[in-house]
Structures are given as C-alpha cells and as structure tokens.
Specification:
Layout: H1 3-6, H2 14-32, H3 36-63, H4 69-93, H5 98-124
Helix pairs in contact: 2-3, 2-5, 3-4, 4-5
The structure holds fe (ii) ion (2 copies).
C-alpha cells in the first residue's frame, strides 16, 4: 500500500496509524516475495505483530468504555483465524496463493475502515 492509499485508513492516532502501516507493509511483503525463508519470517512477524496490535487496541478500548468492543473483538478473532489459516497453508506447501494474501489484506482494510473507525468516531465525536 502506498502512502496516498493509506491516507484513507488514517485514524489520526499516530500510535495506531504506525501499527496499521506496519501491518500493511508486512502483508505487501508477503504478497511480493518469492523467497520461502522471507515468507516464513514475514508470516510469523505478521501473526505476532497482529496479536500485539489487537491486544493493545482491546485494552485501550476497554479502558475507554467503548460500547462496541464485543463485535470489534470478534472481528479481530476472525482475522486472527484467517492469518492462522494462511500460515497453515504456507506450512503445507511453502507458498501462499495470491488470492489468500489479497483476501487477508481486504479483511484488514475492512476492519480498519469499519471497526477501528467506529472507535475513532466514539473517541472524537461523542
Ligand atoms: Fe487496528
Ligand atoms: Fe481493531
């Protein structure tokens, strides 16, 4: 994702935006690389950094009394499952089909667009 496209996904909270930018960067790397070792590293990093990101988000949202936390957490879980399934597919044959990587990117885009922005609206437009 280039900076111009990323503008659409900016929340205005620098710490969150930096993490989202990084997650998109990892997905882009997973899509672009043809190197098995790099793909293995990137998928591992993506799983770990996604888990860390959602744990921080959920903690901040809970502290803020965000009323839509439950569906937000469920969507985080769906993406975590999608990530795990991409990683399993990779482990099975050492590659990931483009459609799987793009589907993962779409899930993250949609999550930010809908669920994360819902939190931003709650914080900044009470
Ligand atoms: Fe997020
Ligand atoms: Fe989120």
């Amino acid at each position: 994702m280039n900076l111009e496209s990323f503008k659409h996904y900016r929340t205005g909270i620098p710490a969150i935006d930096t993490e989202h930018w990084w997650l998109f960067h990892l997905v882009d790397r997973a899509i672009a690389t043809k190197d098995r070792d790099e793909l293995e590293y990137v998928l591992g990093k993506l799983c770990a950094d996604w888990s860390r990101h959602v744990a921080i988000e959920e903690s901040v949202m809970s502290e803020a009394g965000f009323p839509y936390l439950e569906p937000h957490v469920l969507d985080h879980g769906s993406i975590s499952q999608a990530l795990a399934s991409v990683r399993c597919a990779f482990t099975a044959d050492g590659t990931i089909p483009d459609w799987r990587a793009h589907a993962l990117e779409d899930l993250i885009r949609n999550h930010i667009d809908h669920y994360d922005m819902q939190y931003i609206d709650y914080i900044f437009k009470p």
